[in-house]
Amino acid sequence: MVGLCGAVDDRTPPDEFVDAIAWRDDEVAHRFVDDGLSVFGSFHPLLSGEQPARARNGEALVWVWGDVYGFGADESYVPRDGPPDGSARYCADLYDQYGMDFVRELNGDFGLVVYDRTAGTVSLVTDRVATRPFFVSRPDGERLVFSSLLQALPLHPDVDPQFEAPYLQEYFQLRRVFGVETPLSGVREVPPGSIATVDLADGSLSVDTYWRPSYEPVDEDFETYLDRFTDTFQTVVEEWTRDDLDYGILLSGGSDSRLVQAAMDQPVTAFHIADWMSREANVALEAAETAGDEFHLLQRDPDHEAAALERNPAISNFSGWFDQAYFTGFEDEICEEVDVLVSGLYADSLFKGSKLDARSLSLGSVGTLKLPTRNPVESVEDYVALQTTEVVDPVSYLPGRPPIDSVIADNIRETRDGVVSHGVEYGSLQDLVLYGDFYPMGADTDATFSRSLMHMRPYRTPFLDNRLLDLQQQVPMRYFLQRDFVDRAVEQLSPALAEIPHARTGMPLKHRFPVDWVGGNLKVLWRKHVGDETPPEDHLDHSPWPDRAALLRARNFPIETIVENRDPIRELPFLDYGGALDSYRAHMAGDDRSPVLYSLLTFLETPVLDRMGESDDEASERRTVVEQ
User: Fold this and answer.
1) 391 with 170: CB under 8 angstroms?
2) How far apart are the C-alpha atoms of 542 and 548, rounded to whole Å?
3) What single DSSP character describes residue 518?
4) Are the C-beta atoms of 451 and 324 separated by less than 8 Å?
5) Does 526 have pLDDT greater than 70?
6) Which residues contact 103 (CB under 8 A, 6 or more apart)?
7) CB of 15 within 8 A of CB of 156?
8) For the residues of 283-350, what is the DSSP string, one character each?
């Protein structure tokens, strides 16, 4: 695990708080303790460098968790030159020139800490979508404790780990907490695209948001946007890659990762995770062989999910389930092979309209036909309904809780300038609909996937580069649902890869949208009713992920985990042990309770729950050790 933590306090934090951000033995640890400030870092050797980097006057220090790609906007953009570990030095030089304003045009995947001794300030900086978060607690309104890992904060003796029932309910039912709120009382995330600055003289905290997404489409033809998209994407990937590094790509049977593969100008190692050589695994293998890339099937064994439940909740920020840190069980194998990991994540969110409420047509027992048009979201009520469409409500183990739609609605308000949802401001309801599921990234139900990859190796996803984020905000909405940027870009960059079918639709990527839409829907219905290959076990699937509902019925670890945690469940006032058993029994009887069961299982294995069971004497002893 890599990240940053520290405190604005005269006391040095305890070792267990600092050690929580480390994961692998090969990470580089940095330690800084000054009068009233301590900062600790754990970084990948490739990106570490000399940290903190000093500005030329020697009075400003900069730490960088992650990677900075370049600086500037539009035609003035200049990619960062130099070694991979030069991000902190680069930022310190920009700070000399522009002060804190330099972050407004900084491109990258980063979290920064800037300590200006002359100004007497400490700033925590997030990139545009807070890919690398900072969680902050202010125990007495003056001191400040921060960490890139939410689970670490309760290990600091000044942080009292109490739960906020509404936000915990959001996690249990929706797999995430919206905005910058967290289930821990008094703990919030630094907003995306923001600078949170502490004045060391009086302890005051101010937050300056330097970027927020704003959808302002420009009516150009699709081919113009396609050329811009393809050219920008290839430029981003070319700037990122170096001949002296080995790259690994997380290759699915779809098109997003295949576009990354097509844009790479050197061989890569393709990793595909599955339980068996499914349809998707075979498509991924064909794509790797066509591109001349080495293929690694990372095959899960029958105990994989149980082991993931023991391992992964330690890195949970309550945005995703334990099994969504998909690749951690193969970490050693991956790290032995590659220096950098790349994925195609967030293509769906940005360029395929997956966050739009697409219309569908029920064909009864035959199936459902997805239509290339959208249902309008015209009010906060419509937005809340969209977020809760498939929610199980009420939840047996959450007695007395209000309906989840009212919990969400209570945290959203319209203002003269737009909409504020869970502490994050959006310029309009439309911006909330389009971007609220990943601005910040912690509001994404898949955030655990991305953030677990960051801990394994230096990691990048091209779709979150500033230039592609800027382009997306200009594209007319009809192109998200009635065209396919990614498929067409693969065709332009690698016609051979575009000949290979998409694993889900069965259609080669080279086909234009009408043919792809009709053929893909027919293929899905044909597989459902006529000719699909049956997986070797009921809980297996043709996608890279198992059928969670069937898996819960096929394995014993879910009920074992609930029973083993009966005492913590009973001690928490908002949970009911009998209700947890009822949820499990209902699922075993045929109801699908997998979403609320996966959330509960993840929660029960998080380290923060251990702190809840700490006695007053133990808590007092922890504080005494720090004070000494």
Assistant:
1) no
2) 13
3) H
4) no
5) no
6) 112, 125, 195, 210
7) no
8) HHHHHHHHHT-EEEEEEPPTTHHHHHHHHGGGG--SBS-GGGSTTGGGHHHHHHH-SEEE--TTHHHH
**C-beta of residue 210 within 8 angstroms of C-beta of residue 193:** yes
Task: Record the tokens describing residue 21, joined without a space.
Answer: 């951000």
SS3 category, 203: coil
pLDDT tens digits for range 409-451: 999 999 999 999 999 999 999 999 999 999 999 999 999 999 9
Return the H-helix or E-strand segment holding 482. Answer: helix 478-482
Superfamily of domain 3-212 in CATH is: Aminohydrolase, N-terminal nucleophile (Ntn) domain (3.60.20.10)
Closest CA to 111 of 1, 2, 210: 2
Q: Which residues in the chain are classed under CATH 3.40.50.620?
A: 222-352+444-531
DSSP-derived 3-state class of residue 53:
strand
C-alpha span between 372 and 358 (Å, rounded): 7
Interatomic CA distance for residues 50 and 408, integer angstroms: 44
Half-sphere CA count of 60, side-chain side, radius 13 A: 23
Q: Which of 61-75, 362-376, 483-497 has the lowest mean pLDDT?
A: 362-376
Written as six digits, the tokens of 86 are: 């030069």
Query: Whole-angstrom Cα distance, residue 188 to residue 505?
Result: 41
Residue ranges, comma separated, of all CATH 3.60.20.10 domains in the chain are: 3-212
The CATH class of 222-352+444-531 is alpha beta
CA distance 285 to 282: 5
DSSP E strands: which ranges in 37-127?
A: 37-43, 53-54, 60-71, 78-79, 106-116, 121-126
The burial class, CB within 10 Å (0-12 / 13-18 / 19+), for 510 is middle
As a whole number of angstroms, the distance between CA 193 and CA 208 comes to 9
Which pLDDT belongs to residue 376? Answer: 84
**Amino acid of residue 545:** W
